[in-house]
Amino acid sequence: MDVDFECTMCGKCCHDLRLPLTVTEALAWLERGNDVQILCDASPWPEEPPQQNLHAAHRRRRSFAAVSGSLSARVVVILAGAYQGACPNLLPDMRCGIYERRPLVCRIYPAEVSPFIELTPGQKACPPDAWRSGLSPLLRSGKLVDSDITRMVQLLRDVDASDISIKQRVCRFLGVDSAAVWNEGFVVYSPNRVDLVTALHRAINEPMMPGVQPWHFISDRQMTVEALLSVGASSTLVTADKNAGFEYLGF
Ligand code: SF4
Ligand code: SF4
User: Fold this and answer.
1) Please, where are the H alpha helices in 89-183?
2) What pLDDT score was predicted for residue 243?
3) Cα separation of 176 and 142, whole Å?
4) Torsion angle in degrees (nearest 10) through CA of 98, 99, 104, 107
5) pLDDT tens, position by position, 2-28
6) Cα–Cα distance, 94 to 24 (Å, whole number)
7) Does any ligand 1 atom lie closer than 6 A to the CB of residue 12?
8) 197-210: b or e for each residue (b if 16 or more CB lie within 10 Å)?
């Protein structure tokens, strides 16, 4: 598939988002007075998949090892700038108010960071005018050809992998220990801004504490919970309990 693209500055991609941020970007986001949520999902990982399994290798790279009950697992943690309506950095004329410092995920849009998700114009917020043929080449035969975006996609993948141990420590410091089952949804924590800034600085500067933090799987599907319990995992059905300390975002 060939795709040409040019941003029309309609601003649609800057609304109603949970915007994935690197650790450095999350700190800057918080220090500007905006909120960051912690999204967690986890996969059972009873044994190492073969190296040729590229999907597993990708997930392994952006996750940390954990245990749930007696089951090995891998946990993915996403720091997300969360807002309803317009992004707090969006100016009235739809320009980005932090353009020079905007997050990597904004710089690569509408490209995909996952190597396994195909860019589909119809699933993006951009209007038809942004995809007219004759604009700047973005994809040729399905492959990204914009060199700046290609470089930033790779940078984002690399930072995602190198941030993972910091995110693991942040979870430990904040008592974040529940995750949705991969591909079913996310468990979403909304920590106090000051607590999260403190935890991030501490996680950047301090080594990991000894010992292992146990994780819990949360699911909205009874069959999933039973399957996980049967293989020794700690797993519970999501409840509407306001005291759980998190929300469940099902797909
Ligand atoms: S940071 Fe800028 S580019 Fe990114 S969503 Fe906000 S306004 Fe849009
Ligand atoms: S939705 Fe697409 S065209 Fe509109 S501002 Fe975002 S990148 Fe540009």
Assistant:
1) 104-108, 147-162, 164-174
2) 66
3) 39
4) 150
5) 999 999 999 999 999 999 999 999 999
6) 25
7) no
8) bebbeebeeeeeee
Ligand 1 centre and the CA of 19: distance in Å? 9
Distance in Å, CA 205 to ligand 1 centroid: 28
- The residue whose C-alpha atom lies closest to atom 4 belonging to ligand 1 is 106
Phi, psi (degrees; rounded to nearest 5) at 190: -120, 75
d(CA 61, CA 157): 9
Best of 96, 100, 101, 124 for a ligand 1 pocket test (most atoms within 8 Å of beta carbon): 96
Tokens 């009873």 belong to residue: 46
- Determine the angle formed by the axes of helices 54-61 and 147-162, rounding to 10 degrees: 70
Query: Which residue is listed with tokens 């975006």?
Result: 149
User: Which residue has a Cα nearest atom 2 of ligand 1?
Assistant: 96
161 pocket-lining for ligand 1 (C-beta < 6 Å): no
155-199 pLDDT per residue, tens: 999 999 999 999 999 999 999 999 999 999 999 999 999 999 999
Q: Which whole-number Å values give the CA distances from 194 to 15, 30, 162, 165, in the listed order?
A: 25, 8, 24, 21
CA distances for 2 relative to 130, 194, 220, angstroms: 14, 46, 39
Angle, helices 164-174/147-162, rounded to nearest 10 degrees: 40
